[in-house]
């Protein structure tokens, strides 16, 4: 398996994986019409925009094997004054789950955050009903810091948790214990 920084030419594959992941994980949480009809278009636009001219604080790493996208992670350094660097996306193909890819992507992200934003915390937001993701983030030392309610892209209001790590070094420490 190889890890590399995403390029503009990756946007469609990243968007498709992102949409597929949402279609699977958010059944019954988001509006089905959005998952069936709108999510791929939304994700395609997001990733085309993000990868065309990325801001300096954005970092996207993809995991691939024999040219096939297996997963990706996207983070934005120093995104929030209280919590620091946000892990905005982490998705792994269903068929590739259970191989440690998510932990390796988190480690890649943590190394970047440690290099460029070592004095900031790291955080992410996860839907409160996404139990498998919550279990994973807790297994790598995530601390549930906040519960909030927000409007999802489909227009439905959903509860989410904010999980935090005190620093990129703390996140890396937990990942290295598990990889």
Low-confidence stretches: none
Order of helices and strands, N to C? Answer: EHHEEEHEHEEH
Number of discrete domains: 1
Residues in helices, as a percent range: 40-55%
What is the terminal separation in angstroms? 14 Å
What is the CATH architecture assignment?
3-Layer(aba) Sandwich
- The number of helical segments is 5
Estimated structural class: alpha+beta
Strand proportion: 25-35%
Q: How would you characterize this protein structure?
A:
With 179 residues, this protein is an alpha+beta fold. It has one domain (2-178): Aminopeptidase. Helix content is 40%, strand content 32%. It is built from five helices and seven strands; from the N terminus they run E-H-H-E-E-E-H-E-H-E-E-H. It has helices at 11-25, 32-52, 101-116, 131-139, 168-178; strands spanning 2-5, 58-65, 68-80, 84-92, 122-127, 143-151, 157-165. The protein has a seven-stranded mixed β-sheet, sandwiched between helices. Strand 6 and strand 7 (157-165) form a beta hairpin. Helix 1 (11-25) runs antiparallel to helix 2 (32-52) and helix 3 (101-116) packs antiparallel against helix 5 (168-178). It is globular. The mean pLDDT is 92.
